[in-house]
């Protein structure tokens, strides 16, 4: 760990990899290799090995570095690797058309895949002042998820290490909401995978674009606590952090997936279990042959999703990802990658009043055999700020029960959500609630807040216990896929529903109760 900090401070290139000049127009590719050298030692710290042991996870071939023989052969061919991925057994490099053809013929190369330089970044970049990150939208969400319940239990993310992979952290060390973190040296290390020749700490001072505030906002949504104003913005106020910049600000035509994978692997090597990444990749603009298509948001087509799934299955990492902000984009609408990976916790966004899907929040693709997004919570300015709220939620659970593995934590967060078990592809299982999560941690029975009602005709009157004049309703074609959402009035303690054509189920969301209507 000290080696990495020292390299950061003196500005050495990370892990001896080449500096990637982002202005270079030469296309970037993944070069995937055959078998690794079984004699090389796994690239893991003692902390990472210990974490694997206590989680009963093996150290395997994906932990060994890429073969040095392959790297030497590429160098002799004039190829300069940029990022190395031990998980994918691959490197990234900028290649001309001639080089692509030459590399494909190498006996140890299994595939050469373009990293599309024209991907739309699905984070919504709405900068705010560096000393007031997320102020307007985070007060309601803290109430929504029952943050005071964690405070009463003394849960603040203490002893939990969180990795944040984002676009920039400008002004983070001077933001009022983040000063307590830096005062206790809570940020252990920071790396810039975009400008690899810069010291990571330059991210606090370098403003290439206004979206370089983005990571600062995200960090505040996880752990912000403004002592001067007595305002708490995030749940994990006592957590420890590793920060990594993987994306080139708000330049919407950049595909920096290799940087993302490198950042996640770095954090895994240090034993980091919890990751927030409020970035995603959706569609391209200039070269349709190399762009993602909606059908490719399937959890395994993109290499970034494969890496995220591997992190969940083999490395024991809980990766919390923004679902995306394409819900109103008629040409897309669905979640971005890596939110499509089954093993990550994808977070959508709700509105504050009815807790149904806010318009921009991306929808889960219908062909997926599993539910996406997994959960959701309020955020006025993008799923980029709803995901870190749930990251802080997870950190509190990890403090309370450090013995739980990533899949157990993910299950608790889902089961604590207010619509569980009647989730849908608009908001997942809904808003996680601290009171329910704490009960689950203690293996206590939850109150019965879900009921199934079988309709006998085309209309049904439901008696509801709510003081709200109207409630949210999800009309679904099957158990999870929403046809449309609407708000229905409560009249004299009843909600009247009339079945739509092609409607198989209807979810009535009372916030404190969920009613699932099954139509004949």
UniProtKB/TrEMBL annotation:
<keyword id="KW-0645">Protease</keyword>
<feature type="active site" description="Charge relay system">
    <location>
        <position position="214"/>
    </location>
</feature>
<dbReference type="InterPro" id="IPR050131">
    <property type="entry name" value="Peptidase_S8_subtilisin-like"/>
</dbReference>
<dbReference type="InterPro" id="IPR015500">
    <property type="entry name" value="Peptidase_S8_subtilisin-rel"/>
</dbReference>
<dbReference type="Pfam" id="PF00082">
    <property type="entry name" value="Peptidase_S8"/>
</dbReference>
<keyword id="KW-0732">Signal</keyword>
<dbReference type="GO" id="GO:0006508">
    <property type="term" value="P:proteolysis"/>
</dbReference>
<keyword id="KW-0378">Hydrolase</keyword>
<dbReference type="InterPro" id="IPR000209">
    <property type="entry name" value="Peptidase_S8/S53_dom"/>
</dbReference>
<feature type="domain" description="Peptidase S8/S53">
    <location>
        <begin position="160"/>
        <end position="430"/>
    </location>
</feature>
<keyword id="KW-0720">Serine protease</keyword>
<feature type="active site" description="Charge relay system">
    <location>
        <position position="384"/>
    </location>
</feature>
<dbReference type="InterPro" id="IPR023828">
    <property type="entry name" value="Peptidase_S8_Ser-AS"/>
</dbReference>
<protein>
    <submittedName>
        <fullName>Subtilisin family serine protease</fullName>
    </submittedName>
</protein>
<feature type="active site" description="Charge relay system">
    <location>
        <position position="166"/>
    </location>
</feature>
<dbReference type="GO" id="GO:0004252">
    <property type="term" value="F:serine-type endopeptidase activity"/>
</dbReference>
<feature type="signal peptide">
    <location>
        <begin position="1"/>
        <end position="18"/>
    </location>
</feature>
<comment type="similarity">
    <text>Belongs to the peptidase S8 family.</text>
</comment>
<dbReference type="InterPro" id="IPR036852">
    <property type="entry name" value="Peptidase_S8/S53_dom_sf"/>
</dbReference>
